[in-house]
Design goal:
The longest helix has about 100 residues, at about 180-275. The protein has two domains: about 15-240; about 325-489, Alpha-Beta Plaits (2-Layer Sandwich), CATH 3.30.70.270. The chain is flat. With about 500 residues, it is of the alpha+beta class. It contains eleven helices and seven strands. Strand 6 (about 450-455), helix 11 (about 465-480) and strand 7 form a beta-alpha-beta unit. Helices cover about 70% and strands about 10% of the residues. The protein starts with 11 loop residues before the first helix and ends with a strand.
Length: about 500
């Protein structure tokens, strides 16, 4: 039964307008009260920041330069390509030179030492590359597979990974070479240089850390001064902000509560009702009346749409059933037969089980039709159809009228012996059916049927029309064999 509507249904647009005006008025009052207090605080804060902030920015930039120099030193240490190493060295030198022009003696001294360390690291790396290339050149004189393999390994091995006692096991196979000592000396020299580079990298990073600590200490002192100057101002701003934000939050929570209960939840119920139409089944959707007039109008439209969909689904189902059923016999028609047969063949191919198709024809039906009339002939078709329909009870089984006096029966997932048994049972039951004329009960009609069937396991090369054709050929064999019999195609 329809649910009761609320007594008052205000318009949503009017309600939103009034709520917005109230919110704006409260907000403007709060802002006006706070602006007068904040102007004085802002002026004093700007005065303090103009004195100390430039120094803090300069110190911050120097710290960023230190981090960049640290990154370039790591790249110089790790990079393999000489050109890239040179580019990183030049970029780091540009950054270090900026410290040399500082008025701070400590920064200038440490920058000079770091610059010397970077040049030394780059020089050692270049010497390692030369020694590695010389070792590779010595190995190029040999063409044995083992030597070629070692030469490839040495070419791909970064200089920083050439260390005594950590070389790949393949290098042990070079002991038989006449130039082994020459190669070993170069590898050991590169390994010694790696140890020297490790110490230099640690020492350089320690210098950078001292510079970074020095800059941080200076920045911390300036920041403390700045913080002391504006601390009281921040405290006052915080107090005013808490009051202002409390008002805004309370107002927001109130509006959110109103919005959630009068707008959000009703919209969600409308969306849920609209989605429920897809699965409404045999009844229409009925929603709870809503507070706002516009939303309630949408609710009524959804209910009307639900009723329309329900009627359309019912009509479509009836049309679908009519389009699949033979009007005379009540069996499936030819169109439904083709769809069902293809579907069962696909299922049989997926699961690799057998499928049988029976083609059934009433013997001498034309002569019966001519002798007793079409009404009697139609009655005979109905009787035979009911017999065949009785053998299509399992899922996937389908009895259909193929055309005229011909019928088909689909039997999936069945054994060969059961097909013969069912076909003989249909033939026997049809022959036992006796039809008496309505206008002359002394005249009886006894019918027989001929049945042809095909039984096989479907594969990708089979098609529905071939299966029908094979069953039809088996039916003609049954006709040729004298009718009232069963033949397999």
């Amino acid at each position: 039964m329809p649910l009761k509507r609320p007594a008052i249904r205000p318009k949503l647009s009017v309600t939103v307008l009034v709520a917005s005006l109230v919110f704006v008025v409260i907000f403007l009052v709060s802002v006006g009260f706070s602006l007068g207090l904040l102007r004085g605080i802002t002026a004093k804060t700007q005065e303090t920041s103009q004195e100390l902030l430039p120094e803090l920015v300069h110190t911050h930039n120097n710290l960023l330069k230190i981090e960049q120099i640290r990154s370039y030193i790591d790249l110089i240490y790790w990079v393999q390509n000489g050109n890239l190493e040179r580019n990183y060295r030049l970029e780091s030198q540009v950054l270090i030179h900026s410290f040399l022009f500082e008025n701070d003696p400590f920064l200038a001294s440490e920058a000079s030492n770091i610059l010397h360390d970077i040049r030394e690291i780059a020089s050692i790396r270049q010497l390692q590359r030369t020694l590695q290339n010389e070792a590779i050149q010595v190995l190029s004189a040999y063409h044995e597979p083992t030597v070629i393999k070692v030469r490839g390994l040495l070419s791909a091995l970064p200089q920083r990974e050439i260390r005594e006692g950590q070389m790949p096991s393949a290098f042990d196979e070079l002991t038989s070479l006449s130039s082994f000592e020459e190669i070993e000396q170069r590898i050991l020299f590169i390994s010694d240089l790696n140890r020297q580079l490790d110490w230099m990298l640690i020492d350089t990073k320690a210098r950078l850390e001292r510079v970074s600590t020095y800059l941080n200490s200076d920045a911390a002192l300036k920041a403390q001064t700045l913080a002391t100057d504006i601390g009281k101002d921040i405290e006052r701003i915080t107090q005013y902000s808490i009051v202002f934000m409390s008002i805004v939050v309370l107002l927001f929570l109130f509006l959110f509560f109103i919005f959630k209960n009068t707008l959000l939840r009703p919209i969600q119920s409308l969306v849920a009702g609209l989605k429920a139409i897809e699965q409404q089944g045999n009844q229409t959707i009925i929603l709870k009346p809503l507070f706002f007039k516009e939303l309630d109008t949408i609710r009524e439209s959804i209910e009307d749409y639900s009723g329309l969909v329900f009627r359309m689904q019912k009509t479509n189902q009836e049309l679908e059933n009519l389009s699949r059923i033979d009007g005379l016999t009540g069996l499936a028609n030819r169109r439904y037969l083709d769809e069902a047969l293809q579907e069962e063949m696909n299922r049989a191919m997926r699961h690799q089980h057998a499928i049988a198709l029976l083609m059934i024809d009433i013997d001498h039906f034309k002569r019966l039709n001519d002798q007793y009339g079409h009404q009697v002939g139609d009655h005979c078709l109905k009787v035979i159809a009911q017999v065949i329909k009785g053998y299509s009870q399992r899922t996937g089984e389908l009895a259909a009228r193929f055309g005229g006096e011909e019928f088909t029966l689909i039997l999936p997932e069945i054994t060969h012996s059961d097909v013969w048994r069912i076909a003989e049972a249909i033939r026997e039951e049809c022959s036992q059916r006796v039809i008496y004329l309505e206008n002359d009960a002394s005249v009886s009609i006894q019918m027989t049927v001929s049945i042809g069937f095909v039984y096989q396991i479907v594969d990708a090369n089979d098609a529905a029309d071939i299966l029908l054709k094979t069953a039809d050929q088996a039916l003609y064999q049954a006709k040729a064999a004298g009718r009232n019999c069963v033949c397999e195609g």
